[in-house]
Specification:
The chain has 177 residues and is an alpha+beta fold. The chain is built from four helices and six strands. A six-stranded mixed beta sheet has the order 2-1-6-5-4-3, with helices on one face. 14% of the residues are buried.
Length: 177
């Protein structure tokens, strides 16, 4: 009987501690799934924040809408794949330094909610001023996945690309050289 009392008095405080800790965690973790309207609203805000930060050349502002994780994945034009927050940030630091004054404009944006995330896609133009010449204007397309991480919606996967240029027309020449 003495052994039972010792076990109870030794393990009861530990049991209560774990039980109370478990109750606290359950009370603070939200199990609410956002509505489709809330998901779309958050995704639209994220798209706007991305665009504003990009056009200001604000690396930190732009990175604030991306998932700060080594699991962040991006497929920007000119790169096969970037993996991780730091790799993506390094790209934007270089891009903003070499392409001062570039302007990104969405020409179509779409956000489709699924579960507790959003699939985004659309088209854009990227305009780069060139001193003494007409600006360079490139058209492109993008897709991304936005999800809640650490209590806020962020981009966890980003892909943008430009279509391949059209092939020049075939020559009608039949002469042999």
């Amino acid at each position: 009987m003495e052994l039972v009392k010792r076990l109870i008095t030794s393990f009861l405080p530990v049991f209560l501690l774990f039980t109370m800790a478990g109750c606290t965690v359950e009370k603070t973790v939200s199990t609410e799934v956002p509505t489709q309207e809330e998901l779309i609203s958050e995704a639209n805000k994220l798209d706007s924040l991305f665009l504003v930060a990009f056009n200001k050349g604000d690396v930190d502002g732009l990175m604030s809408v991306l998932w700060n994780s080594p699991e962040l994945v991006a497929y920007p034009p000119g790169e096969l794949q970037l993996k991780g927050y730091d790799a993506v940030k390094d790209l934007y630091v270089k891009e903003f330094a070499t392409n001062k004054g570039a302007v990104l404009a969405y020409t179509g944006t779409y956000n489709i909610p699924f579960a507790d995330g959003v699939a985004g896609f659309g088209t854009y133009t990227w305009t780069l001023p060139v001193e003494g010449k007409d600006p360079i204007v490139a058209e492109g397309r993008y897709s991304d996945i936005k999800a809640f991480k650490d209590g806020k919606m962020v981009i966890i996967h980003d892909h943008s690309s430009s279509p391949m240029p059209a092939e020049p027309p075939a020559s009608d020449s039949t002469s042999v050289q």
